[in-house]
Amino acid sequence: MPPVFSNRITRLFEIDYPIIQAGMIWASGWRLASAVSNAGGLGILGAGSMYPHVLKEHIQKCKAATERPFGVNIPLLYPNMEELVRIIVEEGVKVVFSSAGNPKTWTPVLKANGIKVVHVVSSSKFALKAQEAGCDAVVAEGFEAGGHNGREETTTLVLVPAVAQAVEIPVIAAGGIATGRQMLAAMVLGAEGVQVGTRFVASEEASSHQAFKDAVIHSNEGDTQLSMKKLVPVRLLKNKFYHEVFEAEQRGASEEELKQLLGRARAKKGMFEGDMDEGELEIGQVSSLIKDILPAGKIVRNLWQEFQEALESPLGHH
Fold first, then answer.
1. Class of domain 8-207+290-312
2. Where are the domains of the chain?
3. Predicted confidence (pLDDT) per residue in 247-280, tens digit
4. Coil, helix or strand for 235?
């Protein structure tokens, strides 16, 4: 069978559509990743919220649930990196998306083991560093994105063409993409694929708590905000915890005080356990456009169909 769509991204990952599901903490377990891969996209396990033994279990379950390629997302600042990399290599994972850290550290090791490596960046400068480190592609993630974010606040509309111009390797656009028209816009700007996070949080297979999924689909424009720029900038859905952080930042709280306020397991409490007041709820701006919780496979198919329709009549009205 001929490939559905062919460019450097679909060929790199051996997938049908250049649609990548972001490896989000507390949302991206084996159910979500395998469903996206089975639908022709690239599913990714979010190792950022997994202990090494948990990651191993999710990789094994994912392999049992799909024969298609899938990847693992690893935040490079993670304490157990050696163990995580060992598991990824032993289990024969083909693709790694790395974020939050220097790609020089682990890219050569992963590449030596035949793994394709993609690094998430928020600027052209870091994109060039990723290319120098030997990465196969980069994700250019704009300020609209949920979770950890660039301090520069460069939006996807500006970041994607800047990065595409700066590097030779293929660029995957992320941040603010939940529809096929947004996907087409990103590709017109120079991306060869898209990484979608928030839309997949509002999926049946996401491991995030139902209360969090409901909060996402009921959110409106302006309901998310980038905060904690003193520590690690992160985009949050506004709730009681967010307002406490906001007030602390307004009165000039120290890093130490913010760390105490953040405490332990805030993200787990909110996104996984469903505490909508005290939890840290990481989600993108595009949540305001999402109104339903769908099976992940349907999300992939919808994105592709909308992309095709938009491509055929880019200047027409809906």
1. alpha beta
2. 8-207+290-312, 210-286
3. 999 999 888 888 888 877 899 999 999 999 999 9
4. strand
